[in-house]
Amino acid sequence: MTKKYTGGKIFAALTYVFLYAPIIVLIVFSFNATKSRTIWSGFTLDWYRELFHDSLIMSSLQTTLLVSVIASLIAAVIGTFAAIGFYNMKKNWRSPLLLVNNIPVVNADIITGVSLSLLFVSAGALMGFQLGFGTLLIAHISFDIPYVILSVMPKLYQLDRNLFEAAQDLGCTWFQTVYKVIIPEIMPGIINGLLIAFTMSVDDFVISYFTAGSSVQTLSMTIYAMTRRRISPKINAISTLLFAVVLILLVIVNVREARQHKAEIKKEKMLKGTN
Amino acid sequence: MKKTFSVVICAVMLICLFSGCGGSKTTNGVVNVYNWGEYIDTDLITQFENETGIKVNYKTYESNEQMYSVLKQGGVSYDVIIPSDYMISRLIDEDMLEPLNFDNIPNYSLIDDSLKSMAYDPDNTYSVPYMWGTIGIIYDPTVVGEVDSWSALFDEKNEGNILMFDNSRDAMAIALKYLGYSMNSTDETELNEAYELLKQQKPILQGYVMDQIFDKLESGEAAIGPYYAGDYLTMHAENPNLKFCIPKEGSNVFVDAMCVLKNAENKDNAEAFINFMSGTEQSMANSEYIGYTSPNKEVEDLIDIDDFTRSVMYPDDATLAKCESYINLPQETLDYYDEMWVKLKS
Amino acid sequence: MSKNKLFSGTVGAVGGFFDRFRRQSFAYPYVLWMALFVVIPIILIGVYAFTSAQGTFTLENFSGMTDYAPVFGRSLWLAFLATVICILIGYPVALAISRADSKTQRILLMLIMLPMWINFLLRTYAWMSLLENTGLINRLLASIGVFDLINSLHAGDAGYSPITHFQLINTNGAVILGMVYNYLPFMILPIESVIVKIDPFVIEAAQDLGANSGTVFRKVILPLSLSGVISGITMVFVPAVSTFVISKLLSNGTVMLLGDLIEMQFSGAAYNPHLGSAISLIMMVIVVICMSVMSKFGEGEEQAVVM
Q1: What are phi and psi of C161, to 5 degrees?
Q2: H helices, E strands: number in chain C
Q3: Alpha carbon distance B318, B323 (integer Å)
Q4: DSSP secondary structure letters along B259-322
Q5: B203 touches chain C (CB under 8 A)
């Protein structure tokens, strides 16, 4: 193709500007000397200082990280085993179960949140517990697992059907087959699912809003409460920090992938060379 | 990929531990407080925690109705709540409050007598007043001119600059008062008229807000809106152009009081909190910070404010005579309010 | 010899059966979990929708539904517009990215994903600073004299009052903008991942057969990328129809969507979980209908998630 596609490129560039302009504005005004979000009056780091002294924001950050890490890990375990189980089922069992599995993914999250809160409140009234970290965790696990399953299933389908039998013929117990043969093969799918689940948990607002109750707050809930009151550039400061962290992480991941890719190409070249 | 992942996990774990080290010196348990937004001097919370060793979990709500929804939904465990007068009588009727043990609240004696034995809690069993104040119109005269009547909120020439209360009782009260009716009316014709008026107002509004009004009036994003006297003082400090008026048709005077929820887990800690906030020094500091009027009888003389602030914080008798208090409405009317509010916003 | 084979065959079959059962049983804990935390909550919504506050079976929650028809209509219409705009913007961008070399592609994709990782509340909040009457866009326009120009053009009109800003926030447009901004990456990524997988030989073959680039696009690329567009639609439409944060932040309660309506019934200003459940039920039905129409055309959201 020798065409330049300049029209498309310009359009794409404009779209990128559209995507990043508000974020840049947020970041710039997080350093603003006054509370104004639109008039620049000077540089200061005060808002960041206030941010770190705000115990509510710090504790909601801790809650978010804790819930997301624990929920995604548990979801990865349950989800992987469930995927293996589904893989071995007959089609007429598997299809309806996969359909139910997809419900949290397809359903609007306000409905998931509201339905879970109805469940927890009714059960809580009967059994004497309240909304709190436990219910929050259960809710997060519930919407994380489908993402893990959706990541692992394709990897399972790529496996050789006879891997189970082959391993057992070679003397593995059923236990060993799963842990030493199957799981390492599907590990990329599991990791992928884990990361997606973690992202969905960290970013979630609506489901947490309905299931966290009075004693815990996630970061999104705290930010929402802040937007309902006097707006402080502390919100801008949080955005900048989040942006910086995510940017660094993505850069690291991509640099490593690029390096790996280069190493693989080198390896191939070497092998071709010797052949 | 795996290595990156483990690095990330380690980093995340470290952050968890680090933020956990924020330093919570709780030795005497916790107290869960549910209050209006922008309604406390946060230094007082820290002071309370340091003096008593009780950790305060502080959450906020936007309106009495929202607080009621959250409590009714269940599954939550708040100890101290700070609703308004009419909501307190509703909660008492629905048996949702715990009688207070006033032996734990000696500072109750400092409360002004005019605020005791009020209609919403006639036997003084369930509540201790927190703050009181009035509702009025806050406006920027350079944009909307001088205002002395609720009509300014319904005037088309102020289109796009008008903010309105985002809760059913305050919004209806304004409409009812403007039409010349009582804000506690249960008459269906009067209520329907008020609803129609609000419907007509909707297209010229900038929005329905509660605490978001602070930024909007301070920055000049909007020019007129009804809100509470104390918050006017806060906004005035940022934008001296703003003026406050209690309209000639009359307005609302309210009392917010601290209550303990039935089956609260930390009743003693809750009463300790209530006692702390009622102390003269604390109530005065709180009043100075949020601008509302303290119910403590010693504060009026001790508080160090200028005449302008005093005129808003302690309105004269003539102004107060124009103001009506809310009473709790019968369930039928309440259902109508809910239905009407949802329809209005739709 | 044959007896041995038969024996080991049977043992193998029986063992295989138990094996299969054991492998299947991996899924049983999750099946239980799903029953408890996915199926029962939805049944509860149904139960609440059909009961009244006193606990009796009733249809009255649904009878008043026509009052909320404007909210339903508005939500569906705004979500539809937002989805269409996402396609119109997202498709060309996905096409442009797919044409870049693989190193640039990776960077470009990363730049698309980066905003997705920032909390969507913050992304929506960012637009407030831009769209407000005293926000950056209006200030910018004022400083380059746009309003002065407009005012001078209309100076002679009767009853004309000079404007100082464009009304950007608190409009349907602001809400659509918020939706597009938040969900655009969810449209770009699936489309791009599908276009990239189109076999370049197919395109070459089409060109060899005499098609110009316009025809190649219309008859080859577009049909083959349709499943990506479908995935994108499913990932944009449902959140757009059910959001309440975007309308709360960008319209200050003047534009009420389904999400706002439901939220009001559960923890907002008008507590009525039965009405809220009824509305949720109807929303679920609408979503199911839309999704099943979509799934006839494509592979659904699974494709999008796996990418």
Answers
A1: -110, 135
A2: 17, 0
A3: 9
A4: EEETT-TTHHHHHHHHHHHHSHHHHHHHHHHH-PBP-BTTHHHH----HHHHHHHS--HHHHHT
A5: no
Q: What is the pLDDT of residue B15?
A: 57
Cβ contacts from A onto B, under 8 A: 89
B132-146: pLDDT as tens digits: 999 999 999 998 889
Report pLDDT digits (tens) over A150-183. 888 888 887 777 777 777 787 777 777 777 777 7
Q: Do A107 and C238 touch (CB under 8 A)?
A: yes
For chain C, the structural domain boundaries read: 1-49, 68-132+168-297
Q: Rounded distance, CA A69 to CA B8, Å?
A: 11
Rama region for A42: left / alpha / beta (φ>0; ψ in -120 to 50; rest)? left
B59 within 8 A of B33, measured Cβ to Cβ: yes
> Whole-prediction pTM value?
0.86
* pLDDT value for B6: 56
Structure tokens at A241: 């920090």
Domains, chain A, with CATH or none: 31-274 (1.10.3720.10)
Q: CA A30, CA A235: separation in Å to the nearest integer?
A: 8
Are B207 and C170 in contact, with CB atoms under 8 Å apart?
yes
C139 to chain B: closest CA residue: B221
As a whole number of angstroms, the distance between CA C5 and CA C11 comes to 10
Q: In this structure, which topology does domain C68-132+168-297 adopt according to CATH?
A: MetI-like fold (1.10.3720)
Choose among B191, B156, B186: nearest CA to B172.
Answer: B191
- Reported as a single tens digit per residue, the pLDDT across A230-246 is 778 888 888 888 888 88
Percent of chain B past pLDDT 90, that is, above it, reads 49
Q: How confident is the model at residue B22 (pLDDT cuts 50, 70, 90)?
A: very low
Q: Nearest residue of A to residue B234 by CA position?
A: A230
